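=== RUN LOG ===
request id: a7f3
mode: sequence -> structure
chains: 1
length: 175
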Amino acid sequence: VEWIRFARVEHSPAPGEIVHSTEEWEQAGGGGGVAAIQLALLADEAHLFTALGDDELGRASRGELEGRGVHVHAVVDPRPQRWAFTHVDEVGERTITTVGPKLHPRGHDDRLPWDLLRELDGVFFTAGDVDALVAARRAPVLVATSRELATLRRGAVPLDALIGSAVDEAERYSP
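=== RESULT ===
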């Protein structure tokens, strides 16, 4: 989960250029946050296993996610919540800069209800350590983002689906 600060601009700035926003807003985001919000809209319920920073942005992220119907299972990390700045241009293309370390759940952390995963229909793994990946396999269906290939390779857990992107280099998969 990241706290995202958005600015709508006519175009993304070129190196050294200054652009002016026409609209600004903030909200919880990131791969896990966005997926959880969309699943909460589409399904009866969605659960998010995560780590949130011990600061105002971490608390704001939890509040927004819960306010959008997500059941948040989070450990509080003493580090600040990761945030991002996103330019959104006239055609909806995004340019994102993240700030701070990526906070994610750890599968050996017994503050999270890992056994609950057996009761869920499926899990979308967007971040975590190998132990969290192994715990995620408790669900009947396990889908993961190719952005986490290093963890997926180390964990060697069978997946039901791998989701990637042909245009995002960080999510490109080549067998």
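=== NOTES ===
The mean pLDDT is 95.
The helical segments are 30-42, 56-67, 130-136, 149-155.
=== END ===
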